[in-house]
Amino acid sequence: MKVVFFLGLALLSCGAEGACRGLVDNGATVFDVTKYGAVADGEQECAQAFIQAFNAACKSNGAAKVVIPPGTYMSGEVFFQGPCTAPAPITVEVQGTVLAQTDLSEYVNGQWFAIQNIDGLVLEGGGTFNGRGNESWRYNDCGGQVACDSLLPPSLVFNKVNNSLLQGINIVNSKGFHMKICESYNFTAQGLNITAPWDSPNTDGIHISRSDLVTISNTTIRTGDDCISIGEGSTNSCVSIGSLGQRPDEEDVRGILVANCTLSDTTNGVRIKSWHESPNLQASNIVFENIVMDNVRNPIFIDQNYGSKNKPGSSNVKISDIHFKNIRGTTSSNVAVSLNCSDTVPCEGIELVDIDFKYIGKTTAQDVTLTAACENAKATFSGTHNVSPCVV
């Protein structure tokens, strides 16, 4: 899968009090991981050297930068733990390539690089995190299940990381999700390159949950699962939303903008999905705008029967105030719009404006009329569109 974001963004991150954290060279003290025992031979374990270098930087009294120089380093599980006494931002500059340990027993806490409880982080440098998932994917025993607790470790996990910037980093072949952003505020990711083979299991590009003001821009993602998944409790985030309602303690999703994107050769385009038999939740004020699709099977898709497999029960996630605007391109399906909503809480306020697709499937194009399929959905079509509206 591939999705490219072209959202404009300044190279500054401003916190709640208005203090901007930029990328200005402020004479930071450099904490070189090789000075703490890291060896760039791709064979010796470097996790403790990374942790020690970060801890020293975090506890310093002045501006600090952790540097992973050019070369190849191997590492098991790593924790970069705040809060830090060093003034924000604390910078981690990855210039080389970091290889993940292939022994899954090394990941006691179920993640590779975990960065948490930091206010003001810059992670940059043009380097690469290689999860070496190709040597571990055979151990994924989910067997295609939509609900599975046996997922492999994600590569980068940001938990309670606020007012921070991640830029110019390559994340490849993660064992599990490539990146997770959890319980974070004002987090910007830009200029990333996230890749894994199309058939790699559960290798979502970026998963966002319980976070506010997350912006992703100028990023290329080609993975074996969702490019970007926006989970429960996310607000004001900037492409699959869900799955919602899998767990009883989930929170509402609102204020989501997905704009100025190109999606190529994907199964699904812009999608909202919720579980059947879910708790009571709301997903509202969501906008998909100015999106180009190239050979996408299901361009516009709401699925409120996710995980049902013909089981009884309905989703209790209320989906409302959803806008699909200026979405165009090519599709291999004659059903360009599918709104499969809950019979318990039908979708309301679904707006489709300027929807324009060309059919490129196996049937002769002139014999195909592009249609919309709507179930339990109140939808309006306006503007210029070549998709036959569904009758509600």
From TrEMBL:
<keyword id="KW-0456">Lyase</keyword>
<protein>
    <submittedName>
        <fullName>Pectin lyase-like superfamily protein</fullName>
    </submittedName>
</protein>
<comment type="similarity">
    <text>Belongs to the glycosyl hydrolase 28 family.</text>
</comment>
<keyword id="KW-0961">Cell wall biogenesis/degradation</keyword>
<dbReference type="InterPro" id="IPR000743">
    <property type="entry name" value="Glyco_hydro_28"/>
</dbReference>
<keyword id="KW-0964">Secreted</keyword>
<dbReference type="InterPro" id="IPR012334">
    <property type="entry name" value="Pectin_lyas_fold"/>
</dbReference>
<dbReference type="GO" id="GO:0071555">
    <property type="term" value="P:cell wall organization"/>
</dbReference>
<keyword id="KW-0326">Glycosidase</keyword>
<keyword id="KW-0378">Hydrolase</keyword>
<dbReference type="Pfam" id="PF00295">
    <property type="entry name" value="Glyco_hydro_28"/>
</dbReference>
<dbReference type="GO" id="GO:0016829">
    <property type="term" value="F:lyase activity"/>
</dbReference>
<feature type="signal peptide">
    <location>
        <begin position="1"/>
        <end position="18"/>
    </location>
</feature>
<dbReference type="InterPro" id="IPR006626">
    <property type="entry name" value="PbH1"/>
</dbReference>
<keyword id="KW-0732">Signal</keyword>
<keyword id="KW-0134">Cell wall</keyword>
<dbReference type="InterPro" id="IPR011050">
    <property type="entry name" value="Pectin_lyase_fold/virulence"/>
</dbReference>
<dbReference type="GO" id="GO:0004650">
    <property type="term" value="F:polygalacturonase activity"/>
</dbReference>
<dbReference type="GO" id="GO:0005975">
    <property type="term" value="P:carbohydrate metabolic process"/>
</dbReference>
